[in-house]
Amino acid sequence: MPGVATRKNQERTRDNAMEQPPADGCLFLEHGASSVQDYAKERYGVLPLIQSQEKPDRMLIRIKDLTGEKADEVVWVRGRIHTSRAKGKQCFLVLRQQQFNIQALVAVGDHASKQMVKFAANISKESIVDIEGVVRKVPHKIEGCTQQDVELHIQRIYVISLAEPRLPLQLDDAIRPEVEGEEEGRATVNQDTRLDNRVIDLRTSTSQAIFRLQSGVCQLFRETLIHKGFVEIQTPKIISAASEGGANVFTVSYFKSSAYLAQSPQLYKQMCICADFDKVFCIGPVFRAEDSNTHRHLTEFVGLDIEMAFNYHYHEVVEEIADTMVQIFKGLQERFQTEIQTVNKQFPCEPFKFLEPTLRLEYQEAVAMLREAGVEMGDEEDLSTPSEKLLGRLVKEKYDTDFYILDKYPLAVRPFYTMPDPANAKTSNSYDMFMRGEEILSGAQRIHDPQLLTERALHHGIDLEKIKAYIDSFRFGAPPHAGGGIGLERVTMLYLGLGNIRQTSMFPRDPKRLTP
Amino acid sequence: MPGVATRKNQERTRDNAMEQPPADGCLFLEHGASSVQDYAKERYGVLPLIQSQEKPDRMLIRIKDLTGEKADEVVWVRGRIHTSRAKGKQCFLVLRQQQFNIQALVAVGDHASKQMVKFAANISKESIVDIEGVVRKVPHKIEGCTQQDVELHIQRIYVISLAEPRLPLQLDDAIRPEVEGEEEGRATVNQDTRLDNRVIDLRTSTSQAIFRLQSGVCQLFRETLIHKGFVEIQTPKIISAASEGGANVFTVSYFKSSAYLAQSPQLYKQMCICADFDKVFCIGPVFRAEDSNTHRHLTEFVGLDIEMAFNYHYHEVVEEIADTMVQIFKGLQERFQTEIQTVNKQFPCEPFKFLEPTLRLEYQEAVAMLREAGVEMGDEEDLSTPSEKLLGRLVKEKYDTDFYILDKYPLAVRPFYTMPDPANAKTSNSYDMFMRGEEILSGAQRIHDPQLLTERALHHGIDLEKIKAYIDSFRFGAPPHAGGGIGLERVTMLYLGLGNIRQTSMFPRDPKRLTP
């Protein structure tokens, strides 16, 4: 009988999860026979597991909608117990729903008995409860809550899902700014504890804001490109040959043979261009078997990829990509101001600055700026990470922008498929884009001529057999084209001025982390 | 010197790619010295490889914009040579751009010499050319082209990218309806030839339409869900443990250890629900190491995944998903009519029918319908593929819909995490959705109680150690929730009434195919 099973579950849930198993039967809604004097016994308890037994005609209101306008209304709310504090004959709860919270109060009186207050006070933090209460205006703003003008006077409280009493991390610790924590000697939560308990860490207002904003980055990226006439494509992640030479690639066992995980959708984006899709984009995982344990490397990240045929000059594509980034920055400013401010509370940061049109510097200009600042480097040398950071600061000082394009990289430091610059044998039609001094996009005009591609591959010492399919793609008429790949997690991290890419990957993967 | 390199490339290109190397120098724009009598020699030729040498101030017009309104204007167009037919002193070309094409004509006269006409006639099919021409109205509609009211009178023609002369497949063969081809003894192109030469196969109007519509499915899916308040999430594809028991999973070597490719984002979607994201969706690759070589199985496909917390009953979620599908169907009808008709020309099919609200049948009703139609099956038996197809026909006859929900599957045929039906020990709160008699979505209310989950896992003989992280996700308060996963390629295939999933996957992966 399902009823019996349900009750059994309930009892075990209570034993495991309540901090102090109550002495009387007050936990049970329907069968609290032992407590005869409890006039409120039907007003609280642990409800049976919701198995879709019924479809009650009851509206649950969102906490964010509980404002002064609802004063004196009786409402039903479902939320988590964020904190609870018993004080004599009453208990104050903070009820949380995503990034919103409200103060709730249960006090001994007509609606609540002593047992009911005790029950409420004993519900473990993070448990989910259904509350019926009256919305009451408060004389002084409630500073700790997002709903500052009202509180909820509880008339009924039922547990929907009990949390285990000992949380692996405290949400209040998890949103404390690190400096503040250190100064006051209060706890903060380290990265590994957060990631090991990601289900809880993601509940903080900071995490909620980061990932809602990240969802926005994807949305703005697509909105902008679809508006510009791009087509979304889906490219395979299991590939038969390592496209970029074979280093840093994960191997997959594929039935009786083996295969690889794609390090980028580039070949497929280019095939779509050769197949007349003209302008394409894709969003998907990208895999790099790089043993890098830095603040900005992941072994699996999300690529926002663009490829586009152009008419005469690859700057047509550079401008489209830069404009797409600008539309993302603007959209975030307009639509995600609350999220930005929420993250800033824990991780203070200057607002992200950008110019319109986007600043484009040539590589040699950057080299000159760096040399003037004391960096020694050759003309054809790639930028080191510290040089990139320094350059970011120099550009910010000189041009007041956190976003810029570095164009015309030395040919020698770019992949074989990069189009050489027709005007200078040492440079190439390639570019990176930077946010706050860190690279977020790498791109180039690609060689669309099979013969030049063959020459360049040979020059790089690449085995032609391994890239035959790639080169063959261009044999049946290929338009000139360029593109680039953007790292989603880096965009989110750098836009918000965060210090570690693991903060902007929900379930990050690095050489040492594969869980959760 | 870049100039020299470019010319070298040009010459080689000519030797390899022109069907008959012309006797004179007419292929060369800038150095056709041998042909002194050619008064048009600057009006045609093979241009140097576009390496972004310049940014000319020249507008290229889109073929789809060449209508009667442009009559008598001189325009520049870039397109592919779709067909060419020389006839005495003139040559007719069909110039193609994606799904649009126009007739173009070059004739000996003021603007074109004999050599120029010969040059145009010799350009290999699929080459990309830039044409300057006058738009002229035609007295009779041009039946073979999308631009039927005008043709282009060529004044200049330059090759931008030469195609090799022997194409592995002909585009006209590739869009011929199979029945027509058979009747007339004309060629059609088989699946493997298409897939082996996907860059060319994707250029057909049918392929262009299929994948533009598929891009639309993703767009409509997201638009609808973002409007409903869902958040987009990104879930990892490399996972440390096989989530659903370990069968049919691909193994990845991960540094010194090994890992798996995710068979579904389900655990991560559910973790996001436990982390208060409330309503989430994701679009991404899903991997199944199943050795199935059928018309509807791929080893890598794109999952459109949804997970959502609900208040009281999982039908709240079923309704949201069904409505999302309906919005997709409506959006396709409204925005992709041209694409639907294009595909129908090659693959005729009845328009897709659906009801509002969506028809929902209980599993036992379906069993009764099948039994009435002569199928023998037990109450707790799963539907075979032929039964599903038959059921689709029966439902279509009775209710006139190609889309419906089958609810309350037997508990025995569903995964361990499926919530049992509280009213019937043999059934479960689970559902599939069907399009034209084939499953496109599988979903359920999930068990959100760690103890019931443990019981059900044990009942299924699952090693608890392997799913510990999964079960632990529910220990700190979990809302009731349900969800489902939709196969993108199946939706596209079945909406368009196509017969093979390889037609709706750009670069399909199956046990026998890993390329291109």
UniProtKB/TrEMBL annotation, chains A, B:
Residues 1-23 are annotated as: Disordered. GO terms for cellular component: aminoacyl-tRNA synthetase multienzyme complex; cytosol. Residues 211-516 form the Aminoacyl-transfer RNA synthetases class-II family profile domain. Pfam families: tRNA-synt_2, tRNA_anti-codon. It catalyses: tRNA(Asp) + L-aspartate + ATP = L-aspartyl-tRNA(Asp) + AMP + diphosphate. It is found in: Cytoplasm. Belongs to the class-II aminoacyl-tRNA synthetase family. Type 2 subfamily. This is Aspartate--tRNA ligase, cytoplasmic. It comes from Phrynocephalus forsythii.
